[in-house]
Amino acid sequence: MGLAQPSARQITGLRKGQASRRVCEVVGAIFLATSTLSVSAMTPRVATDIGPIYSLAARVMAGIGVPDLIIRHGASPHAYSLRPSEAAALEEADLVFWVSEGLTPWLKRRLEILASKAQVVELMKADGTVELPYREGTTFANHDDHSGIDDHSAIDPHGWLDPDNGKAWLGVMASELSKIDPSNTDLYFENAAAGTLEISQAVARISKALIAVRGLRFIVFHDAFQYFERRFGISASGSILVGDALAPNPARIIEIRGQVAEMGIGCVFSEPQFNPNLVASVFQDAEISTAVIDSQGIDLALGMALYPQVLESIAQEIIACAGE
Ligand SMILES: [Zn+2]
Prior knowledge:
Elements: H1 8-42, E1 46-48, H2 51-60, E2 68-69, H3 84-92, E3 95-98, H4 105-114, E4 119-122, H5 163-180, H6 185-210, E5 218-222, H7 226-232, E6 238-241, H8 250-262, E7 267-270, H9 276-284, E8 289-292, H10 306-322
Parallel strand pairs: 1-2, 1-3, 3-4, 5-6, 5-7, 7-8
The structure holds zinc ion (ZN).
């Protein structure tokens, strides 16, 4: 009364409209569910060995997925036992990015056994990678400290410390990910390009900052930093250990203390995995500055920003140790 009753035709029309809206919602929900399902089903499972490699992979996968890290962030990669969850990550991986057999000789066999269904990419062997042989005749070289690396032509595996390698590997990762997940090809390559730009910006800041310490005489704990040194125009006078010795040798550090002072070394760098307190206490008496530099950024948050931060934090420690 008062309001006109809708005609049967209008009612039918209304019902049809509601019904078709409902159908749309249902279809939409199914479509959404299906596409969510297919994205998660299709997202490649990616395993990485150390923090900086995790960071590069996370950069390329941003918005798509997150890689797994199989060597605990903070452990020395040169000798390590996988935990069950880390072994499981290898078993489930579609893709594995690792630095090289030189860095983690123990991992090669584990990959063969555990990651048999994965595409395994040894980054130091990837196209466009700068490789440097281990340095010979480092000032404090002592064959007793050699950890089974007797081949002087062996490649120094710490190649991620060259930012050009970091950039090259972003491209390698984008192309490997695209092969197994072609629907996200554009995003992988856009991410790699953004990551490359971020590395370039960090390199520009580091290059400018390190001008102040050109000519600094310093030694490192193990010979892990030549990729960084070469790219930024600085050079260690030597290393306490040669190559990748696994344990610090207190007697050896005390033995070279006098030599270091005579040579006018201003700075001795230790590393978090290699008893930095020992180095600090031994050189305290010799009035030589010590600082901790870290090739993996173990104090930095594990994420896609870590890679350029590792390079910047090495630069900051060198500058601080030089008193600039
Ligand atoms: Zn090392």
